[in-house]
Amino acid sequence: MKTVVFDLDGTLADTSADLIAAANACFRGLGHGDLLDPVGDALTAFHGGRAMLRLGFSRLGQGDEAAVDAQYPVLLAAYADAIDTHTRLYPGAADAVVALRTAGFATAICTNKPEGLAETLLQRLGVRDLFGALIGADTLPTRKPDPAPYLAAVRLAGGNPTRSILIGDTDTDRKTAAAAGVPCILVSFGPEGPGISRLRPEAMLHDYRDLPSLVARFLG
């Protein structure tokens, strides 16, 4: 079966504000106040919890990785408690997935968010049943850009990797697609904006209304 695999954060949903809030909760708990900006530091948020913590500690003139390790579980707990306060699907995302499934495509998610958190978020957003598979950062021993999680997502959804495509928003997604030998579509409305075209994906997506026809160009 032809399969469309989506990244989650920055591709299907804008999760940056809730991610930044979780990191700031850590810094407030340490008596430092909010060190990260939900707008200015959004790109860092999409590189994960540890990246946000490192950025915050660097602003304090601290580079101790032990402090990052100590606060990471605190960040995950804070994020789990308020995972969908500000997070929203990008306009048209759910409708595009429905259209793909109606056209006979299998759909899956491959994310570097921990699987449990991804599962919770998709349930809260009301779209978990739109995806036949979910592979998170901790589902397998490796994570993106290793191709194994992507290939597992395709197969779990009932698809054939040779007839699949990845929709993403970062260099990690681009590298994952290259490693798996599949085409990649990057969104221009993610954290890096249109500038992500520098990675030379097979196509750029500017509006989810265009996704079904764009996918058809590659998978027929």
TrEMBL record:
Catalysed reaction equations from the record: 2-phosphoglycolate + H2O = glycolate + phosphate
Gene Ontology cellular component list: cytosol
InterPro entries: HAD-like_hydrolase_sf, HAD-like_sf, HAD-SF_hydro_IA, HAD_sf, PGP-like_dom2
EC number: 3.1.3.18
GO molecular function, one term: phosphoglycolate phosphatase activity
GO biological process: DNA repair
Gene3D superfamilies, per the entry: HAD superfamily/HAD-like, Putative phosphatase, domain 2
Pathway this chain belongs to: Organic acid metabolism; glycolate biosynthesis; glycolate from 2-phosphoglycolate: step 1/1
PANTHER family: PHOSPHOGLYCOLATE PHOSPHATASE
Family named by the database record: Belongs to the HAD-like hydrolase superfamily. CbbY/CbbZ/Gph/YieH family.
Descriptive protein name: phosphoglycolate phosphatase
Organismal lineage: Bacteria, Pseudomonadati, Pseudomonadota, Alphaproteobacteria, Rhodobacterales
